[in-house]
Amino acid sequence: MATENQELRKAGLKVTLPRIKILQILESADAARHLSAEDVYKTLLDAGEDVGLATVYRVLTQFEAAGLVDRHNFDGGHAVFEISTGDHHDHMVCMDTGEVMEFVDKEIEALQHKIADRYGFELVEHSLVLYVKRKQSEPPKVTN
After folding, report:
1. For residue 129, what are the contacts with CB-CB under 8 A and spacing of at least 6?
2. CA dist list (Å): 37 to 17, 59, 82, 94
3. Could you tell me the pTM of the whole model?
């Protein structure tokens, strides 16, 4: 809990129990897991915490403004949040399951800079989301 207290203070936020609990949930999520406000709220409920959904939304918005979390709005879905690590990565979203996968590809990064340069720009920031579906396996070949 001391780590969360320091992170909140460093971000200029008052240390409150709801903020600590929400930060702990986000930090303990799988590295590639992106949580919605509803996911965070359900986790709090399951843990017996008395924090309202409106409070969860407000705290997540405060965390985003303070740079503690990144918000993503993937097509066809609601906003999801992940701890802001400062490391750049892109995302793939499975159209069948909604699973969000993170990836880094040096070739894609270099190509984006090259394209911006070609048009007389400097790439400052970008967001790349690939919407994917699992490949259907070919039906087994029938042999007689």
Report:
1. 72, 74, 75, 90, 91, 92, 93
2. 17, 10, 11, 20
3. 0.76
